[in-house]
Amino acid sequence: MAKISNQSVIAVESNATANATASDNSAKIDDVMNNVAAMMNKMNDQPKKHHAPANVSADASGHHKVDVGFTEFEKELNQTLESGVNNATQDPQWTAEMRQKLLANVTDTMIASLKEKTKPIKQNIGKTWMALPDDQKDEYVSQLKARFESDWAGAMPGIQSHLKIGLRRVGEFAKQTLKVKPEMMLAGSEKTLADSLVNPRCYGSDDPEFLQMEDATTTAAPAKQEKGKPHKLKKFCMPPAVDTMVGRFKDSEGMLSMSFRFEAGAMSLVQTGAKERSIEVGH
C-alpha cells in the first residue's frame, strides 16, 4: 500500500509540474501576442500622411495605371531603332519615304511584340498592387521599377548587339552588284530587323551545311550514314533578343510580388492572432 501511495504522489506531482509548465508557456505566448498587439495599435494610432500614390495615374474611366518604367523603355528602344535605321539607309537608293516606312513598320512590329510578351507581367503587377494594403503600394511600385530598370540595363547590350548585326545587313542590301528593286529591298530589310529583335532564330531544315542532331530520348540505334551524304540538322529555334529581356522582367516581378504578398499576409495574420488572443484572455 505504501508503494502504491508513493506512486500516486509522484503522478500527482508530475501532473502538477506539467500543468505549471503549460501555464507558463501560455502566459509567455500571451505576453508576446499582447506586446505585438500593443505595437500594432501604436503604429495605427500614429497620424498617417495622405498623399497620391507615386507612379500611379488614373485614366478617364477611373482605372488605375501603375508606371513601372515600360513606357520609358519603349521610348528608348524607339530612339535606338530610329538612329540605327537612319545610319543604315544612307545609300541614295533609300528614299526618305522608304526610310520612314521601314522605320514605322519595324517599330510597330517591335512594340506590338513587346506589349504582347509583357501583358501577363503587367496583369500580375496590377493584381498584386490591388491586393496590397495602401501603405505598401508605393513601396512595391518603387522597388519594382528599380528592379526593371536594372533588368533593362542588363538586357540592352544584347538587344543592341543583335540590332547592329541586322542593320549591317540592311546596309549591305544597297551595295549588292545586282541592284534590288525598292519594294524587295524594303521587304527584306523589314524581315531582317524583325528577325534581329522579335522573331525566333531557327536553323536546320534542309540546309546541308549542318550535321544532324539526334534526339536524346531516341533509344533506337542510329541509321548508318550513306557515304558522301551529309546528315541534315533537325530544325531548332533560339528565342529572340527581346525574350531575354522579358524573362528578366518576369523573374523580378514574380519574386518581388511574392515577397510583398507574403509580408502583407504575415502582418495580417499577426494582427488577427493578437486580436483573437486578447479576446480569449479577457483584455
Written overview of the protein:
With 283 residues, this protein is mainly alpha-helical. The protein is built from six helices and four strands; from the N terminus they run αββααααββα. The protein has one domain (58-212, 230-280). The longest helix has 44 residues, at 2-45. The radius of gyration is 33 Å and the shape is elongated.
Task: Give a concise summary.
The protein is mainly alpha-helical and 283 residues long.
Helix content range: 55-70%
Per DSSP E runs of 2 or more residues, the count of β-strands stands at 4
Q: Give the terminus-to-terminus CA distance.
A: 48 Å
Biggest sheet: strand arrangement: 1-2
Mind summarizing the main beta sheet?
Answer: 2 strands, antiparallel
Element pattern in H and E: HEEHHHHEEH
Work out the count of structural domains: 1
Identify low-pLDDT runs. Answer: 46-54, 58-63, 208-219, 273-283
Tell me the β content. Answer: under 5%
State the secondary-structure class. Answer: mainly alpha
Radius of gyration: 33 Å
The average pLDDT score comes to: 75
Taken from the alpha-carbon principal axes, the silhouette is elongated
